[in-house]
Amino acid sequence: MVPEDTQPVGYAALIAAYDLFIPPPHLLSAFRADYRVVEVPDWTVYTKRHAPEPSLAGHLTFALKYEGVDLLVLKSLFRAVGPGAIEEFVTAAPTSQYARRAWFLYEWLLGEAVDLPDALTGNYVDAIDETQQLAGRSRNSRRHRVRDNLPGTPAFCPLVFRTADIEALLKLDLKTEAAAAIGSVPGDMITRAAAFLLLNDSRASYAIEGESPPQDRIQRWGAAIGQAGGRSLSHAELLRLQELVLGDTRFVHKGYRNEGGFVGTHDRVTRAPIPDHVSARPEDLPALMDGLLAFDDQYASSMDAIVAASVLAFGFVYIHPFEDGNGRLHRYLIHHVLARAGFNPPGLVFPISSAILERIEAYRRVLESHSRRILPFVDWRATPAGNVDVQNDTSDLYRYFDATPHAEFLMSCVRQTIETDLPREVAFLRSYDRFKAGVEALVEMPDKTIDLLYHFLSQNDGRLSKRAREGEFALLTAPEVEKVESVYSEAFGGD
To answer: Where is the active site (predicted)?
Structure first.
């Protein structure tokens, strides 16, 4: 709904004028016929001095200047207007950076040449304005005199805006903070902390999916996470990981889906699908996964590691290439990017899944930030087997999305890991070592018995229960029990 007393401009005007069947950007633009500044949710309202010429060139210039690059809108627009409109735009303003950027983006997105000679004048300009959005490595396009700094290929290129939250987190330099967080921690303690955090992360990754697998599967997946970043991603590697996640694959199709897919529920009576998210069509999976792997191989290393992990991992889970195991592989990809970039301190895997599990509602909102937006634009039919069969071309919905909320969320999770989770685990180990030394000074016990003693005390507010005193620890005298409880209190501060 356009705000009262305003006129849409930029992408909003172009979507309306050409009846583009696509989800609109998260933030749209309009202008008022006066100079009053107003605030409207989901809209930026400009004053009349910003009003563009009411034409394709005018609104496209406004969009590129003020709203950034939206590849999904632009590709749909370019298909609607055809090459002639771009030829007119460039011919009328051959040195305009916005005309040349539009020309470059047309040919980059559609893979079709516009009938124009190569640009001979005009300074080189960036395809992505890096003051607005995060870009990739730069390559000159001589034909357009444009620097191609798009962080991906036409097959897969989500974009991230420079919001205040992202700018603040980038300035924190979380990678340096991570190294500093363990700088004074003894190596053996880091090893012990790493082992616990890794197992806990594996357990949390299953918990996010609502699963409680046996311990051996948790340990097996934890071992895989511990190797993240050590192997290059490929189609074969993703299949290997899927088999590792699932274990028993007798009742699951291995490899990329050969039919539709969705996330959601079924009607209890009819078994009709009720999707919250519809996955990419099976016929689009080879090209989409090629694009995703190309992003990981060619672009991720030139970007901030957390931003790259957000793009790769959330892009993967939206495509949903497998019948099962997508969620855990999605979180594995976060570990993969961070570990390969050397973001983690040596020997340590960030418990990303644990941080996500603690803020599961925010995680779901982030997933829905794109899923719910694209759902009305997916024409699907229910199959007799209770699946979905998509009727229209939806591939671009998974290639080009605004990954800003995803980057903000993942950055906050990594920050929590560095500033809270890791110090908390190290503090626990220090307290536990004090407790263990105190107990050993009182009475000789095997390590496993000391650990059992700790668990009894921790579960009963630092007091040894009557059952424990009469059972596993009946050999302790009353004075020894009192001293053990005192040792626990001193070690853990009464917690």
So the answer is: 320
Residue of 59, 144, 320, 370 marked active site? 320
Q: Domain ranges for the chain, please list them.
A: 6-148, 164-419, 443-492
Quick one: 132 exposed, middle or buried, by C-beta within 10 A (0-12, 13-18, 19+)? middle
Instruction: Tell me the whole-structure pTM to 2 decimals.
Output: 0.90
370 is in an annotated binding site: no
**Which conformational region is residue 122 in: left (phi greater than 0), alpha (psi within -120 to 50 degrees), or beta?**
left
For 382, which DSSP code?
E
pLDDT tens for 211-256 read: 877 787 788 888 888 888 889 999 999 999 998 888 766 767 788 9
CA-CA distance, 415 to 397, in Å (whole number)?
30
Homologous superfamily (CATH) of 164-419 is Fido-like domain (1.10.3290.10)
Annotated binding residue 292? no
| Residue 326 annotated in ligand binding | yes
Residue 59 annotated among the catalytic residues of the structure: no
Name 102's Cβ contacts closer than 8 Å, sequence gap at least 6.
Answer: 60, 64, 74, 86, 89, 90
Asked if residue 325 belongs to a known ligand binding site, the reply is yes
